[in-house]
Structure formats: C-alpha cells, structure tokens
C-alpha cells in the first residue's frame, strides 16, 4: 500500500475529509504530523477519517507536510483540487478594478493594486508603510469588493482614537459618497442618478447613542467595553465587515482588547487589518491578527508558535527569536494573497529624504552617580539624600530612562494592601528641572532658526518640563499628550501645520498614530519607546505625503552610557523580526538610518 493523505471537499465546501493510508508505522507518523498543524482535526462520524477546516492554511500545511516518502504524499481529490486551484488564482490574480471613483479623485497605482487584493481576498492585512494612504486603499478595496457582489453591511471600523475615526469618516464621504460613471453621470448604490454608494457613517460612542446605521466607526476602548462578552451590543451587531486600523494594538491575544476584536469579527465575511508595524514586540504579535482573519486555521497561539516560530527559554519564560528558517517558505505560502506591504521609498519618490543624526550628551555628575548606582545595585542614592528602590526589571528600565533624561524627586507613600492587609511602600517619582535633554533640544532649535520641530518622548512629565523651557525661551509651543480634549489636540495640530507654532511636543503614546505633522522640518526624540510602533511611527507623522521640505531631519538625543543605547539595540532586534515577517530585510538595515 502506498502511504498518503487523501483529501476531498465536503458537500457544503466547509470541511476537508481526510483519509490516511499506509502501514501501522506510517499511520502513526502521519497522525503525529497532523497534530503538529495549526488547525484542529476531528474524527469523522462514522469513524475512520478526519475532518479538517476547508481553508488555505489547511491545504498549504498538508502540501508542505506530506511531500516525502517518509510521511507519504498529499493527494487532493477532484473537487478539492478544483477548489485549491480556484483559491490559488484568487490569491495571486486579484483582477482589475470595476469601481470607478470619477474624474476628480486620483488614487495612486499602488493603492488601486491594494484595493484589488482586498476585494479578492476579503480577509486581508495591509502593512504598507505609514504615510502611504492605507485608509484610502482600504475604502477603495471595500468599494471594489461590493462592486464584485459581496454584501458589506453592517460595517464596523475600529480606530485607535476618535481623531482617527474622523479621518475615516472624511475618507468614506469623499471616496464612497457617489459613484460616477464614465459618461459623467452619477450611478448610486440603488441606481438613481447622483445617489450615494454607501450610507453616511456614524461615530459609535456607546449603545445609548446607537441609531443603527450601516457603517459604525468606533475606538478600541469603546469596542473593549461593548464587546466584552457575547451579549455586547457590538457583538450582537454581527458585522459582515470589520476594519481594524492600527491592528497591532490588539497584539496580545489574552488582552480584553484582542478578545473583543475576535468577538466582533467572528461573523465577518470581510476583515481588513491595517498596520505599518504588525510586529512591535516579536513575531508572535502577528498571531491575533491571523486568528481574527481566520479562527478556524489559527485556533490557538501555542500551535502557531510551535509550528512557525523559533523560541528559547531565558529562565523567566519563552523568548521568540523569529520565524523558523525551515518553516518560513511554508509560512509565506500560507499567507499568500492575504497581506501586502509597500515601502514609502518605492512608491513615493517625491518625498524628501530622511537625514538621521544623534546628539550624545553627558548626565550632570551629581545625577550620573544616581544613574550608575541604580544600574548596578537597583537602588539609587539621589543627590538630595533620598532612595529610589526598584522592584522589577521593567520598573528599573523605566527609572533608568527617567534618570537618563532629567532630575527627579521621590515621594515615599505608606499604604495597606487591600488584599493581604499588609503594609507596603510605594514610590512616586516626579521629574523636575533641570532636564539635560530639554537643554540639548533648545540648543538644536537655536542652531536651526525658522524651522519647525516635532518632538517626542515617552514621559509626559519630560514633555512638560521641556515645554516650559521652550516657552521661557520664546518659542511658540503646542502639545499632544494623553488626556487632552479632541478640540485642543485638533487646534494644536492645525496651528502647527499653519506655521503658528515653532514646536509641537508629543508623548509617544498620544502622538505616534493618526496625526499629520508635515510642517515639521525636523523630528526630535528625547526618548525612544521600547515598543517598535511607538518608537518608529512618530517619524512618519512628518515624513508622509504633503511634506514639501527638501529634507526631514530625524535627531535622537541620547545620554551617554545609558539605557538609551540599550533601547536602540532592542529596536534592531525587533526590526529584524518585523522585516522577517514582512519579507523585507531592508527594514532592519535602514532602521534609524542604519543604527548610527
């Protein structure tokens, strides 16, 4: 008997019926191999065969697993073979655009290409560089998918903030407001002249303000509350289309945010995830997105990690090193036609170049001792006689980042643990002037009179100290930090873009996503985040379509011999994993201008 795994499509085309042939040893080996695939197989009724989900991941893993004399061959039967061929063509030949946007709007060629891929795939991850217009690509892709006969509504769009939600609202009204025929006559969704292609979207802020439109735009925070369980109003919506902007924000599959996204996407025939940085910690970040797109193929993170990722144990837990080299071809085949990335340098030749530089500064001697003590002993002796103990590695790194940037003071708070009843000590750390990094920024700005600066730091306190110094020095300064009202934030951005501000100071959390600061000649980092998205995306707030300067300077202010260098090294590791996932080794080579 020839060993092999035979497969045929079920009558409803939802499953693949598998029959394994061979001697006892071959059957045992085949069974073990099937257990190592990411999807779950169940026994048939009556028994004797296995049932697997009919997905592209299933047939791809079967083809890569059973391709040798040792395990036997993968042998799809006629109906399944026809399904595989059709699925392959859908993924590699997405077709041309049917939807026409009229004579005025002008999408770029790569946006049209992405739209066709989105329309064909239905479940898609758009990883184009920040600043390339992923929102427009997605709206066009959904319009094209509708033109090809797929029902899209109700549609739920999840954005990182209400400001970004407003951007989606504007783009939908611009690109889906009216369908215009080649003769110039309007052709609406119902065929009436000048009619709308899509209904007007609504910002969804909670069920008490829900009026039931076809298109809802909300935030991750609101989704987390209103899809907390199966009874949540956004789950009951049963959206046919789910769009998750900056989908890396749902990278932790155990978080309430990721679980909520999985619930709202469960019934969706169309799911589009957008992110320029699908990897912010390690290659495992991609799993929750894959699961949201296709939960039958990716039911459990452990199965995905075991099959595709290289891991080590550092004594504290599992460390993901990247994709297993021998599994990388299979992984690429599995996601064929379901993701796309274009780099800005390949499609936006009109953008000015980025010019990177580093300013290395000394910590004042009296605070240098505090820094070195903490680094060596995890206990800092402050110049004013106080002590700053550190209770965890993460806290240590945070404190080191603070001491690398500015002076600080510590308040010791005694309190009772409500669970144990035991007394415990808490330390409140407050940054204060002087800040040697703020002083260095002031020097940079004085060297470049007339330029506008976008400045980023992790610490809101450091932003505040820096702002006071700039304002006292006569610079017009605006802020983008957490907790501001949308009106203030919008006014600050508009004033900066209009040239009414010399500097706009942003925290990495509040300013790394969804804003445009193309008036900036220079982007200055007082601190870089440990998270890759917050570390590199701020550059693209300025370096994007609309920047008409001859260059954009990217300046890092680093304290010598401190954790600042360690952050940059970690960014290189994460950048390498991002480049591996996206199949573009240039990412790590070009990160921070080549990691000077």
What keyword list fits this structure?
Alpha-Beta Plaits, Rossmann fold, seven-stranded parallel beta sheet, alpha/beta, six-stranded mixed beta sheet
Number of strands: 25
Q: How are the strands of the largest sheet arranged?
A: 9-10-8-11-12-7-15
Q: Which segments are poorly predicted (pLDDT under 50) over 5 or more consecutive residues?
A: 179-195
**CATH-defined architecture of the largest domain:** 3-Layer(aba) Sandwich
Using the coordinates above, name the CATH class of the largest domain.
Alpha Beta
How many whole angstroms does the radius of gyration measure?
A: 27 Å
Provide mean pLDDT, rounded. Answer: 89
Largest sheet: 7 strands, parallel
Question: Gap between N and C termini, in Å?
Answer: 62 Å
The figure for the number of domains is 4
What general form does the structure show? globular
Fraction of residues in β-strands: 15-25%
Q: What is the CATH superfamily classification of the largest domain?
A: Tandem AAA-ATPase domain
Q: Class by helix and strand content?
A: alpha/beta
**Helical stretch tally:** 24
Percent range for helical residues?
25-40%
CATH topology of the largest domain: Rossmann fold
